[in-house]
Amino acid sequence: MGIAVVSGSASGIGAATRKRLEADGDKVVGIDIRNAEITADLSTPEGRATAISQALEACNGRIDRLVLSAGLSELHPLHLVVKVNYFGAMALLDGFREALKAGSDPSAVLLCSNSARMTSFEGNPFIEMLLEGDEARACAFIEESKNTFLAYAGGKFALGIAMRRRTPDFGAAGIRLNAIAPGPTKTPLLAEIKEDAVRTAGLEGLPNPLGRYATAEEIAASIAFLLGPDASYVHGVVLYADGGIDAALAPDRF
Asked: How confident is the model at residue 1 (pLDDT cuts 50, 70, 90)?
């Protein structure tokens, strides 16, 4: 039995991951804006600080497994998408590093997206703002651009890079660090998107080799694998759990 912290634990992939980890014997401390052990708004520095301090207290300064799944769809105000999906996740990851270092076979998983590689974001100034930690400029840029795809998918692209850039430091501390990139998954976030006709058409236009969307439980199972002993030499990986959509879109890139 270990100690796990899961952000976004109240719904969707986060809730399914919580259930899976508890079934595997972990004590789970959930973080969410409501219906969790720790209620915090990850769009604000104060909320992030509250989440970190209260989680550290609840876990007595030791975390074995960390899952950062809190996130917003691009239908929300774009500055909030950036604040929660990227800056909230990175603040928690860095804020829990020492507690993970104190854990037993510690590992962490971030929630990326298969949309992050559906176009090229290399050289985009927004990505650089994210990676440089310039929250104010990034939020102002994305609100001015009104680019919903860049806000969501670009943020997930930057998240994957930030994760990989941390692998030397986290690895030296004995912490495995990976990310998962789901495709469309049956969650409240997907339900929000499917209320929009344009985005629904975009989803339905994607190649779908398995012919269906994932369940949250399937994504949680992949997360549990990345966290667990069977992935003991997996570090710095973005695992696509998208039914083959990425492979169908870009079969020659891996």
From this structure: confident
Kindly give, in sequence order, each residue whose CB lies less than 8 Å from that of residue 238, ignoring residues fewer than 6 positions away: 112, 160, 163, 164, 178, 179, 180, 181
Closest CA to 66 of 3, 24, 13, 1: 3
Q: Which of 1, 4, 79 is closest to 43 using CA atoms?
A: 79
The C-alpha torsion from 226 through 165 and 114 to 237, rounded to 10°, is: -30
Phi and psi, residue 215, nearest 5°: -95, 155
The yes-or-no answer on residue 233 being catalytic is no
Q: How far apart are CA 129 and CA 106, in angstroms?
A: 30
**Spatial separation of the C-alpha atoms in residues 196 and 187, rounded to whole Å:** 15
Tell me the pLDDT tens digit for each residue of 52-96.
999 999 999 999 999 999 999 988 999 999 999 999 999 999 999
Q: How many CB atoms lie within 10 A of CB 149?
A: 14
pLDDT value of residue 103:
98
Token digits of residue 16: 């399914």
- Domains of the chain, earliest start first: 3-241 (3.40.50.720)
Spot the catalytic one: 152, 213, 233, 240.
Answer: 152
Q: Decide if 106 contacts 5 (C-beta within 8 A).
A: no
Contacts of 71 (CB under 8 A, 6+ apart): 8, 84, 85, 89, 111, 189
Non-local CB neighbours of 145 within 8 Å, separated by 6+ positions: 126
